[in-house]
Amino acid sequence: MNLSEIREELSELVSGRVAVADGMVPPLVFVIAHEVWGVLAAAFLGVGSAVGITLWRIYRGKPVRFAVAGLGGVVVAAMLALRSGSADDFFVPGILSGGLTSLVIVVSIAVGRPFVAWTSWLARGWPVAWYWHPRVRPAYTRASWIWLLYFAGRTLLQWRLYEAGSTELLAGARLILGWPTLLVLLVVTYVLGRRWLTGLGGPSVAEFEGGDPPPWASQSRGF
Fold it and tell me: What is the Cα–Cα distance from 223 to 42, expressed in whole angstroms?
């Protein structure tokens, strides 16, 4: 495994699916506008920036489902902030989403259908039954524990900052622990996941689909 392989894999997983700006720009705009003009202007400008991102992606012919989902989240967040008059409430949907994701990961591990296996299946389209093979599933279970630490830790930190009323620190945590940290998580998941798959000695996707008997070569690319 080399750096070019990791870069290609990340580009394949991220490109066309998620725009970094979709999640990073609206909260930043909201916080800056709140400091200058107050919560009303911040809410409108935050929503406006999300609308602008969505329209720009439509204009460029890029996939918009994640941008639209992000826009919906920003609208809900802005409505909460306007209703309470507190800028901190803008970050409540993100905190709740992180908590729900953490819960889903725990349940997925408990029932033997690890969360990271589902995310890989959605991104790659490999046979879902392959992920449940006894010499494949443990790798995705281990990776799911890492994802749980990330989402639970991020949620807990943001909740503590919310309780403390630290709007600027909340925004900073949202930015730093968003896509920059998530990209690190994806790299760690890929590197360790490949190592775990090799160590387990399970079948590759092609070997699984072909019904090949052991010994198996294991998956040589992707996780």
Answer: 41
